[in-house]
Design goal:
The protein is mainly alpha-helical. Helices cover 64% and strands 0% of the residues. Helix 1 (3-17) packs across helix 4 (62-75) and helix 4 (62-75) crosses helix 6 (91-103). The longest helix is centred in the N-terminal third of the chain and has 15 residues, at 3-17. The radius of gyration is 12 Å and the shape is globular.
C-alpha cells in the first residue's frame, strides 16, 4: 500500500469502527475504535497495535512510516499520540488531518 492508501484506509477505519483517545484502541485491536496511530497501524497490517512493534521499532513497514511522517508534517508535531489525545480534539480534526496528509 502507498502512504496515500494507508491514510485513506485509516480514515475509513475511524469512520467505520470509531475514534478513541487515551489508548491505541478500545480493547479490540482488530475491529474496535482506534486512535490516529492505531488506525494507521490497522490500515497497514490489520492490527491497531502493530504500530507499537512494527512501524516504530523495526521500521519494517516503510510505507506506513511515510504515512505517519505525512501526519507529523500536517500537525507540526512528532507526538502524534499526544496530539490525538489533546482535550478538545474531535474526530473531525483527526479525519481532516488524515485527508490533508493523504493529499500532501
Amino acid at each position: 500500500m502507498t502512504p496515500e492508501e494507508i491514510l485513506d484506509s485509516a480514515a475509513g477505519i475511524i469512520r467505520r469502527d470509531g475514534w478513541h483517545q487515551g489508548e491505541t484502541d478500545d480493547g479490540d485491536p482488530e475491529s474496535g475504535a482506534v486512535c490516529l496511530m492505531g488506525a494507521i497501524g490497522r490500515a497497514a497490517t490489520g492490527d491497531s497495535r502493530s504500530e507499537e512493534v512494527t512501524i516504530w521499532r523495526d521500521g519494517v513497514i516503510a510505507e506506513a512510516n511515510r504515512a505517519v511522517q505525512r501526519v507529523i508534517d500536517v500537525i507540526g508535531r512528532t507526538d502524534v499520540g499526544v496530539w490525538n489525545d489533546d482535550q478538545g480534539r474531535s474526530v473531525e480534526d483527526v479525519l481532516l488531518v488524515l485527508k490533508q496528509a493523504a493529499e500532501s
